[in-house]
Structures are given as C-alpha cells and as structure tokens.
Here is the input.
Amino acid sequence: MSASTSLRVRLPVLVLVLEVVMLALYAAFVTYDDNANAKLQNNETQPMENSLYRDYPYFADVQVMIFIGFGCLLAFFRFYGFSGMVFNFLTATFAIQWAILIQGFFQFNHDGKIHLAVINLLNAEFACAVVLISFGAVLGKTSPVQLLVMALLEIPFFAVTEWAVLKYIRINDAGGSILIHLFACYFGLGVTFMLYRPSLNDGHAKEITSYHSDILSVMGTLFLWVFWPSFNSALTFKGDDQHRAILHTFIGLSSSTITAFALSAVFNKRGKLTMADIQNVTLAGGVTVGASVDMMISPAAAYALGIMGCTACFLGYKYLTPFLARRMRIQDQCGIHNLHGLTGLISSTAGICAILLATEETYGPSMYQIFSHRAPPEGDPKLLELQQLIPGLKPGLGRTAQEQALYQLAAIFSTIAASFIGGLLTGMVMKLPVMALPSDEDCFDDELFFDMPSDFDIVEMLKTPSSLDDKGQSMSMNSKV
Here is the structure.
C-alpha cells in the first residue's frame, strides 16, 4: 500500500479524535429518559407500559435493515465484498452515535440535556439510513476515512434540514420520502459530482460481480424487503394509521417485485432475468408509498404506486444513470437516483394528491390528527368539538388542503437544494489528499485497505479484463441501493 492510502495513521487518529469529542459531549449532555431512569421506579409500578415495549421492535427491525440489509446489498462487486459490508458496518455505527447527539441538540429538555430512550436510537437509525443511501453513490471509490468524514458532515446537514422543514414548513412525510430518500439521494449526487473520475465512465476491470457476490447481495435485498414495513410505519400514529402503513408498504413492495421480474425479462436481449434488477428494482414500491403510507389512499393506489415506482426505477437505471455520468459528471455508482430520487419524487407527488383529496367524509374526525397542520388553531370553537371526539388532539395551523399541498411542494424543493449544496461542500472536503483517496486503478478492490485471506490469490487471476467472458461483463453504473 502506498503512503497516500495507508490507514495506519489517518484512521486511528480520526477515530480517536471523534471518540474523545463524543465522549465529552455524551458526558456533558446525555442522560436517561424517564422510561430508563431507575429513580422513578417505573419497573415496580407499571413495567409493561415502558416505552421500550412500544419502540424496541421497530428499532430492532430497522437495525437489521441497516447492518445486514444494506451491508449484504453493498457487497455485490466480486472484489469489493469486504469493503461493501465492513465499510457499511463502520459508517453505520459511527453515524448512529453521532446522530443521537446532533438530533438531540434540537430537542433539548428544560434541563439542557438529551434524555436518551430507544426512540432516540430509532430516530438516529433513520439519519444513519440517509448516510448509507448516499454512500451508494460513491461505493468502491472512497476510503473509510472519507466515509467517516462524509457521515460526520452529512448528519448535521440532515438534522438542520429536518428541523427546519418540520418546524417551519411543517409537512406530512410518514415514510420519509422527502426527508430521508430525497435528501439522501441528492446529497449523494452532490458528493459524487465533486469526486468525479472521468476514467471510470467507461467502466473498470474490477467493476464486476460474481455468482457468490450476487447471491449475497440479493440476501440483503430480502432483508430490506421483509423489514421495510417497519421502516415506513415506525413513526406513524399507533393504531389504524400504523396498520395502514404496514398494509400499504407490503402491497407496494409486492407489486413492484412482480413488475421488476417482468421488466427484467422483457428488456433482456436473451429474454432472461438479470440479478441487478432483482436486487434493486424490487424495492422501489417501498419508497413510492412512503409519503402517503399512513393515509387513506386505498390498497389499489398502493398497488399502482408500486408499479409506477418499479417502472421509473428500472428505466432510470437503464437509461438515466449512464446519461448523468457522461453528460452531467454524476457517477451514481449504485443508482441511488433511481431507487430513492425518482421514486421519492413520485411518492411526494402522490402524497400531495392524497392531501388534496382528503375529506372528513373519508377520514372522519381523525383527518385532523393525520393531517395535523389542518387542525383548527387554538381558540377555534371547532377545535373543542374535535377534542371531545379525539381526546388529546393538538391545535393545528388551520391550513386548507391547497395550502398544505403548497407547503409539501416547498419542502421538496428546499430539501433537494439543501441536500445537494451540502453534498457539494462535503465532496470538497472529501477530495483533500489527507483523506486516503484510492487511485482510479485501485477502485473496487478490497486489497487496497484489507489484509486478504490466502485463498483470495486464486481469484486474483480473474482481475484482468482479458479473463472476462460475456457473463462477467462490467457492471458499471449498476443500480443496487
């Protein structure tokens, strides 16, 4: 390994500095939530009402998605399996630790402390998912030092954007189509724009998959597929809202899956299935139902959204991703713009339509709970009437459906702008020579940063372009995340 890519000093020093800073911040600002504080003796009085039993199942499900689903999915390159899984592990672990602090700073209690509970961990996992989606745009072309720096900077950009959108614009986004998928996508595109490598536009000799790496990757897809209903429903209102969210997510995923198989066979010149389509396009429905996942959109609409998202994702990865690389200097390595950008836009549009169509006839009084910003403001006589029907209903802003739709639109454009600018600035920092940037020749290769086992030498002979047959063709610009 050349001195310019050695991790011997860079990685330990960066980790040590980050750990010292976080240890100091945790010591100064983080304490226990009421549901974790022994002083309150909740364990003796009403232990089963502890928030742990409400939040932990969703935390566990999302954790499987983060560490196993994303990890396996990113291991699709033949010579980059260690890096795909392990760099995901490293980045995710740090991102969650960091997000607990950064997100907590916007939710200080009266004592100036972050009161830690499982729900904080769950929120931090969603912020971590943002980082891992963005990671997909630069997979194979970055060092672990660069990825830690990316997480270090992206989490604050995300937390500020999330806080501003939820506090001032105030939107409905139960499944995170705007604040998770669109933000992550355009942040990642901003980063990869700054890290543009012209020589990689025509592919790379090591940018190939193998039989075993494709199997590992589709396992990641299956983990994400199975647990996606938890991801979309975790932060919705308990009860029928959460029930609808799970139903809609499953239906959307199911329709996108069977559509993906059909499209894969139709567009393959030999009428066969392509593993890249199965690993990626099948998940599109989980994103496209996100913005309206808890609304009364009907099962048929969820089914249609799954088909629309799958089709947009498939065509995007087939035609749009190569165009972005050649014409706009955006090398979207895993096609995150297809699975998270295009589908996020479809989902956000569907959410706006659902808001415009929402009526009390369809929702009953609960409309003002689901669309909380449409609830009457404090002092309005109608608020008192609604609170008798829905105890605990909070005052809203009294927005009309049309006004709320415009705020949703504003959130889409502001989120995309903030994330892309944040990605550009982060990419500028990641380009610094001290970040252990891999050379073009060393991209997509585990050997650059890992001590490889002895049997890896057997597959080393396969790395030369001349050894590739038509089944081992380059997977450049493949869409995986």
